[in-house]
Amino acid sequence: xxxxxxxxxxxxxxxxxxxxxxxxxxxxxxxxxxxxxxxxxxxxxxxxxxxxxxxxxxxxxxxxxxxxxxxxxxxxxxxxxxxxxxxxxxxxxxxxxxxxxxxxxxxxxxxxxxxxxxxxxxxxxxxxxxxxxxxxxxxxxxxxxxxxxxxxxxxxxxxxxxxxxxxxxxxxxxxxxxxxxxxxxxxxxxxxxxxxxxxxxx
Length: 202
Known about the structure:
mainly alpha, Serine Threonine Protein Phosphatase 5, Tetratricopeptide repeat, 9 helices, 65% helix, 0% strand, disordered N terminus, disordered C terminus
């Protein structure tokens, strides 16, 4: 399910180029808009298709939640349905409700953080990930997403690398571990590019 984590498809050289640009902006000094450095969200970046909301599922789950407001499972499914339909503001509302019902639900907390990120709230996203990591310090999906937001939302490659290295240390052969390895390779490639480039950021 897409709501498990940021869809972290790293397109090899493309990722390295983006990280190189982030690194260049760090060296140059000025802050850049976060919308300019969003992580790839599925596909190759050129063939992304807008997700469609499953209206029938929303209607069904909304009716269940209305009749049973303490139904955590239905509330979580409703949040995930909105997330998968890329309706992140609506997803935030329902993930927050899930956490009121089940404050220790680390997956819902992390998905809430991802939703904050997708609504241009990287600081809130990182705060939510910190909450998730208090619940489970070795939650690899949280650490992976933390690295993505640090890199693309805050242009903090050192912080991102630290988060990704933790993923590799905890679960090197998991999908998250493999994605983290590719991300770290991208960071290394970006640093190599910058050290060998006369005019960073050009």
